[in-house]
Design a protein that fits this description.
Blueprint (H helix, E strand, L loop, with lengths): L2 H48 L11 E5 L4 H12 L3 E6 L2 H13 L3 E6 L5 H15 L4 E4 L14 H29 L3 E5 L12 H24 L6 E7 L10 E2 L3 H4 L4 H14 L3 E4 L3 H8 L4 H11 L2 E2 L5
Parallel strand pairs: 1-2, 1-4, 2-3, 4-5, 5-6, 6-8
Antiparallel strand pairs: 7-9
């Protein structure tokens, strides 16, 4: 081998070694940065437990809520209006929805009612375009509409299951596709999705319903990551809500061994908690608040042990078929 060839070989080896060292140094720096940022995030989260984020000002902003004819949707509409928001009330039932609008207007608030069957995609998209023209930017979108048949899986009909998914999950996609692009363009806005504690824990007589509510948690988590990776400075807030059993009539036959611990929550209290979570920009919030933490801790405990606890508490929903 000539001296020239040896020199070239040595040069290539030195270059490769230099590149290896450089890559190792970069990796070490990345790891150090990761550890530092990780613990900063932990400290910020702990501080946040004792010093909640300031509440977003809603006066003059536009809030769109589905399922405002009764229950949680109606209560959220009333409370958002009291905070100075213009509330767009969507519901399939024109009569009850108009009643919500009239109650808001009678108390001096601003509200507009629209009839919409959220399972009809074309109807929904057309109405979405209409309200954007009439009211401009939608600052807060609340996907609230939902149904909850309560009986064993083998007693559910095909239509019942399909309708449940169409309302509780699929309609959310059409709503988000309608209003998220404007939020991304302005890099602001909030989307609230109503899951349920049935989206945290599997419950008897609610198999398809639990499926829809777990789905809400899944798509909201994935969408948050999609927005974050698309724009590291993303300021569109996503909030998933996990309410316990609310006294709206949706939960027809609640069962609890210890009523003082697991009593039904009033729609007024639940709505206030949901609105507070949205205004704080929380990614996940349960009603009551500690249920999300209970679910996370429960996943660290062996399944058999948790079933013993569940059997002892004996809380759930009895069938609505007799």
């Amino acid at each position: 081998m000539s001296k020239v060839s040896q020199s070239a070989g040595n040069s290539n080896t030195n270059t490769a070694n230099s590149n290896d060292i450089y890559n190792i140094v970069l990796l070490v720096v990345d790891i150090v940065m990761l550890i530092a940022k990780f613990w900063i995030a932990i400290v910020e989260a702990i501080v946040g437990l004792f010093r909640p984020a300031p509440l977003e000002e809603l006066n003059g902003k536009v809030v769109l809520i589905t399922g405002t004819g009764h229950g949680m949707g109606k209560q959220m509409a009333l409370q958002y209006a009291k905070l100075g928001a213009t509330v767009l009330c969507w519901d399939v039932n024109e009569q009850t929805n108009n009643q919500t609008v009239k109650e808001i207007q009678k108390s001096g608030g601003k509200a507009f009612g629209y009839v919409c069957n959220v399972t009809k995609r074309e109807e929904l998209l057309e109405l979405a375009q209409k309200v954007r023209k009439e009211h401009g930017f939608i600052h807060v979108l609340v996907n609230n509409a939902g149904i909850m048949p309560c009986h064993p899986l083998l007693e559910h009909t095909e239509n019942e299951i399909r309708l449940m998914y169409d309302i509780n999950v699929i309609s959310h996609f059409w709503m988000i596709q309608s209003f998220l692009p404007d939020m991304i363009e302005r890099n602001e806005g909030s989307i609230v999705a109503l899951s349920s504690c049935a989206g945290l824990f599997g419950l008897v007589n609610l198999v398809p319903y639990c499926g829809t509510k777990f789905a809400v948690r899944g798509y909201m988590t994935a969408l948050a990551e999609e927005l974050r990776q698309k724009n590291p400075q993303n300021n569109v807030k996503l909030t998933t809500i996990f309410p316990y059993m609310i006294d709206t009539g949706l939960c027809k036959n609640p069962r609890y061994r210890f009523p003082s611990l697991f009593k039904l929550i009033s729609p007024e209290v639940a709505s206030a908690s949901i609105i507070e979570a949205q205004r704080q920009g929380l990614e996940e919030a349960s009603v009551p608040r500690h249920f999300v933490a209970v679910e996370k801790i429960g996943r660290l405990i062996p399944r058999k042990a948790m079933r013993l606890v569940n059997d002892f508490l004996d809380t759930g929903v009895d069938t609505d078929k007799h």
